[in-house]
Write a structure and sequence with these properties.
Radius of gyration: 17 Å
CATH topology: Rossmann fold
Helix content: 40-55%
CATH superfamily: 5'-nuclease
Number of domains: 1
Distance between the termini: 36 Å
Strand order of the largest sheet: 4-3-1-7-8-9
CATH architecture: 3-Layer(aba) Sandwich
Shape: globular
Amino acid sequence: MQGYISVGVFIDGGYYAKVNRALKAAESSIIRVKSLFNFITTRLAMDDGIAPGDCQITEAHYFRGRYRVKEAYDKHLLYNERKFEDSLIENDVIFHYKHLREVDRDGEVQVIEKGVDVWFALEAYELSAFRHFDYVVLITGDADHEMLVRKLKAIKVKPVLLTWNLTDVDATSPLLREEVGHHWELSEILQQYPRLKKELLYKLRDPAVAPLGDTF
């Protein structure tokens, strides 16, 4: 394929947060959004044999459940939420939030995140149909997005699954991985290109604030 490439990026915030939590625990680092986007465009340009400048992320969207302001304040989450949102804004990422609910079940508090996955899929499909992306990069490991991938392929949009497995248990759905075709697993890529890791990660300077960063 030759010419200009338009890319849409859709980030599953729950999955992204799990990756960042694992990175913070292991290396006191979090993902640098700008570097991640640069990796995406550079890799796609290289795969298609075009100049990196001809491959652009034309839209990026982030989906996540979050607490209402009083709950976030009580849990000391507001600062880190705003800090992370600043990094999204600086990289022209549009964020989509739905409120979380806490439910007491048999004496155990469970956090309910309802409707975010459906919203993610609907927005990704609708925007792909209207914007005519050449590629859609999905940062997620959720099996629920298998049908989204099928629908994207039906309208001639090439889906790419980007994951980063940092635990002993693979968090990526095998069904999703098989359906998507193009799968970039960063843990495997970084074994081949170890220098890339320094570019992708931002080192946290103050370990004291790390526990507050679970919303990243």
